[in-house]
Prior knowledge:
By secondary structure, the chain is α/β, with parallel strands linked by helices. About 35% of the residues lie in helices and about 25% in strands. The chain has helices at about 25-35, 50-60, 70-75, 90-100, 115-120, 140-150, 180-185, 190, 195-205, 290-295, 305-315, 325-345, 360, 370-375; strands at about 15-20, 40-45, 65, 80-85, 105, 130-135, 160-170, 210-215, 225-235, 240-245, 245-260, 260-270, 275-280, 350. Strand 5, helix 5 and strand 6 form a beta-alpha-beta unit. Helix 1 packs across helix 11, helix 6 (about 140-150) runs parallel beside helix 9 (about 195-205) and helix 9 packs across helix 12. The model is unreliable at about 1-10 and about 380-384 (pLDDT under 50).
Amino acid sequence: MATPLTSPPSSPTRRVAVVGCGGIARGRHLPALADQGARTSVVALVDLDAAAVERTADEWNVPGRYTDVDAMLAAESPDLVIVCTPPAAHRDTVIAGLEAGAWVWCEKPPVLSLAEYDRIGAHEGERGPYASYVFQHRFGSGATHLRSLLDRRALGRPLVGVCHTLWYRDEAYFEVPWRARWETEGGGPSMGHGIHQMDLMFSLLGDWSEVTAVMSTTARATETEDVSMAIVRLESGATVSVVNSLLSPRETSYLRFDFEHATVELEHLYGHANANWRWTPAEHTDRTFDAAHWPPRADEPSSHGAQLKELLDAMDRGERPAASGRDGRRALELVAGMYRSALTGATVRRSELTEDDPFHHAMYGPDPAAATAVLSHQEETAHV
């Protein structure tokens, strides 16, 4: 466990409640909170499984133990609620936290649809509380340093990109009751896995304008896809290849960005440090170009802890944190566009995902059964 951080004099201790006592809470969030030292105090845990609450609370010495979110909010009045539940419970839990006056940090995918995301936004205050989402890969020294270079236009225009999430999940993975179902998970690897790398890409390269995608259910028993591929055009003019798979035995998360003056690559799996980045200057640059730009002085890995620190800093300043609001919506928008494109056989413009579009309200569009049939090639047509 990392050495606890020293709390700045002006930083109050934030009362934190964690909703959900599964692996992501125990393995990532509770350790990250412990590493913040005096900046946080975990005052309550919530889970429908009372035994899981007791075990986790005993392990982490948490006093408040609940099986009901509303009861916890009324009794504990936390400053920050961290949501680690299955995706179908995200919307209502996040809204309950906001309505109780707490800031909320929610695991991915944020919610099941753009409509749900926008409904959450309506419960935020003008100056907080805010809801933000766990997109930890955009944090850490490598991504932060590259973002600063791009802000200064040091690498020139982005031209070509690759954003691939090639992971492996066996049949047993999909047997968890809430997985592999439209109504409870919202989608397949495009929604719940590759969304991390897509968020990192957008945090670096900016907004997208149109997408053309194909998807299929190739080898797993799931209502949703297990493979998706897309060509994405960005507002900058760059073109990006996006691939999401749960069928790839050699797992990797691979991003490559070709700029006018350099190629920057990142290969990792579930988190990255400076050593995971590769830098190749263009031939026309001089010998000092590489040394002047890479590596960054610090070497902070991407992690839940890195994002949590920035979230707490935003709370101290009373400002909207990164990965929230419009900034946190972009990857979910692309996922909706990918599903619409794959299920209708047409290129989708970002501007088309309006409130009157069925894919604004559900990733499967107007009919989940028809979407499943298309993905599993049970129909000859590629239209819902």
